[in-house]
């Protein structure tokens, strides 16, 4: 589901996704030290979504969606657009 938004809209939406990740107990970290787009992993016992900082906001949002696919969102309060984007 690709949305036709401009860069600022994607950046604002990414901030909403970061809030949702926080509610799921997942930290969002950007780095330039990886060659891949990023991945969800566990660092010192905490779930962390490590993201390549050189991706644009839309690519980062798609990475968030891919990495949390299948997560139980039922008990979380999420904005309707965020819930729909994440597939919940």
Walk me through the structure.
With 88 residues, this protein is α+β, with helices and mostly antiparallel strands. The protein has one domain. Helices cover 40% and strands 22% of the residues. The chain has a 3-stranded mixed β-sheet.
Topology (elements, then pairings):
Layout: H1 7-23, E1 26-31, E2 38-43, E3 46-52, H2 57-67, H3 80-86
Parallel strand pairs: 1-3
Antiparallel strand pairs: 2-3
On the 0 to 100 scale, the average pLDDT is 94
Number of separate domains: 1
Biggest β-sheet description: 3 strands, mixed
What is the count of helical runs?
Answer: 3
Determine the N-to-C terminus distance: 14 Å
> How much helical structure, as a percent, in the residues?
25-40%
Low-confidence stretches: none
Q: What is the overall shape? A: globular
Q: State the strand order across the main sheet.
A: 1-3-2
Descriptive keywords:
3 helices, globular, alpha+beta, 88 residues
Task: Summarize this entry quickly.
The protein contains 3 helices and 3 strands; from the N terminus they run αβββαα. The protein has 88 residues and is α+β, with helices and mostly antiparallel strands.
